[in-house]
Each structure stands twice: as structure tokens, then as C-alpha cells.
Amino acid sequence: MAERTPQNLANHTRLDPPFHFFVLPVLAITWIVSVFFAVRHPGFLHIWIVIFNTALIVAVSRTRQYALKVQDRIIRLEERLRLAMLLPDSGRPQIAKLTEDQLIGLRFASDEELPALVERTLSASLAGADIKKSIKNWRPDYWRV
């Protein structure tokens, strides 16, 4: 099995090659070609093909968005559970004050630096991107969609 590249702020975003480099370009090219034919040869069939291709692009995009939204919900749950285990009793009420964006950013923080980073996040109202930039010891997430 090939070794995974250690994850960090610079490389943590994930592209899915079949989706991003095949499905999306094929759909985009097909839509452009269908619009071209509808303009050059107006008629019910060509206009319907444009409408159908538009619906297909919307359906594929929404399906991807739904998967990402479910992933975000799971991350929120996982991080709340992890915070409940790692924060001292006095810090647990603060978990409810964290936003979805902050919880998603905190998922990359190591267990050791998480309590201090939560405190800093709440006191400075850090956004998810700022939280990720503040992480010293990156905790990889290779399971995301």
C-alpha cells in the first residue's frame, strides 16, 4: 500500500478526479454543445436537450452538495463528542458556542492543542480558515468526501 502524503493546510483540500476531471468537464462541454446547436438550429428537440442537460448539471451538483452537507453534519457531531472528552468540565458549556465553520476547522487540530485552540477560537471569534492556519500539529482527515 502506498504511503499517504502527510496532510497539512496546503494540501488538505481534496479533489475527486473522476468527478472533477471527468464528470464535470463532460457535462460542461455537453451543455455548451447543446446550447450551440439550439442557437444554430432552433427547435423543440434542441431546446429540450439544453433543458435536460441543465437539469442533469443541477442534479449532479446538488448530489455532491448533499454529500458534503451530510459530511459537515457528521464532522459537527464528531467534534462535539471529541470536545466533550478532551475539554475540562469548565470548558464543556463552551462547545455550544462554536459555529459549524469553527467545528469543521477544529477537526484538524491535534488532541493536545485542541483545548487551547477552542479557547482562542471563542475569545477571538476565529473563522474556520483562521483556525486551520493556527494549527501547529495537524490531525489528518483522509475519510472526507
- Termini Cα gap: 21 Å
Q: Tell me the count of domains.
A: 2
Give a count of the beta strands, DSSP E runs of length 2 or more.
0
Strand content: under 5%
Oligomeric category: single chain
Radius of gyration: 21 Å
Largest sheet: none
Low-confidence stretches: none
Shape: elongated
Order of helices and strands: HHHHH
Helix content: 55-70%
Structural class: mainly alpha
Provide the residue-averaged pLDDT: 92
The total count of helices amounts to 5
SSE blueprint:
Layout: H1 17-40, H2 44-86, H3 100-106, H4 114-124, H5 128-134
Account of the 3D structure:
- Helices cover 63% and strands 0% of the residues.
- The relative contact order is 0.13.
- It is mainly alpha-helical.
- It folds into 2 domains: 16-74; 87-140, no CATH class.
- Helix 1 packs antiparallel against helix 2 (44-86), helix 2 (44-86) packs across helix 3 and helix 3 packs parallel to helix 5 (128-134).
